[in-house]
Design brief:
The chain contains 13 helices and no strands. By secondary structure, the protein is mainly α.
Amino acid sequence: MTDIKHIFLTLGLLINLSFAATPEQVEQYLLVSRAEEELIALESQFSAMQNAFKRHEDNKSDAYNYDMQMLSLRFKEYLEKNLSEDEMTEILENYKNVVLLQFVSASSQAQETDNNETRAYVENLKNSPEANERIDLVEKISKELYSKESMIILFDELIKPLMKNGINGNQMNDEMLKLVQKDYLKTMVENAKYETLYASKDFTIEELEALLKIAQTPAIDHESKAVFGAMAYALKEFFVSLTSRFDVSRHQPRNMQNRVDTK
């Protein structure tokens, strides 16, 4: 009986491996989506952060160097292992839709737009009564494209360990971590909503309705969780390298301790 179980477990593993997303699918996905573009931006941001730490500490040790090229390799590796071939096929099928491609292009331009301009547009939109339908549709789209369940992956895999293991991390109790998580999600959700509103500013109501239908497909849910998971996996080693230099007391949400004390 034990031998039979072992055979079935082995067969199950082989089946899972044989249906994993292929490297070709992942490369095709990176071409049509904004994932690689965002990854390159992350590489640039974290490379600058690493250099800033080195300048501040005047430390030239290789122990403080993290090869940013590993981000891309680990990102692709995660997608291949955590998306099946069928799931990736469904994701790529979504990107054949013109409306989604238009949104991807518009989102890329929106990220290059000054934050003040984006917020000014959104505030003006909120003050327009006839824009209620547009805002409602876009908020629904944003919640699907950037779900809290996906966003929390980054917090659990990167920010939480950094806060707990950084300098003065022993000061972080569970209640304080919950407050950090709450502030993190609030910021992420708001930024996603503002970016989506601005990126879709030239879309008609009919196009927004079509985009919402795409956003509600299971493929988008698979994609969102996989991409956030891949980013966490790609950045994890870099964040670990930061713990010995990250002073938690300097990066707490404003008045966090007072909020904890008053509960």
